[in-house]
Amino acid sequence: MSPIDPKLMESVKRSCEPGYEPELVKETPWSYIFKTGPKHEHVLSKFVADKDFKVSVSEIRAQWPAMNTNERYDFAASFSGSNERSNTEILEFLLQEGDDDVWPICAMTFLELPDRDRVVKFLIERVEKNTEKEPPLNYIQALGLAKDRRATAAILPYYEKCRAEMEAEKTTGVPENVVFGPIPYHAYFSICGALLKIEGSSEYEHAIRKYLDHPHEQVRYWAEHALEIEGPTTLKRKAEYAKKFAK
Question: What distance in Å separates the CA atoms of residue 109 and residue 80, rounded to the nearest whole number?
Answer without folding.
Answer: 6
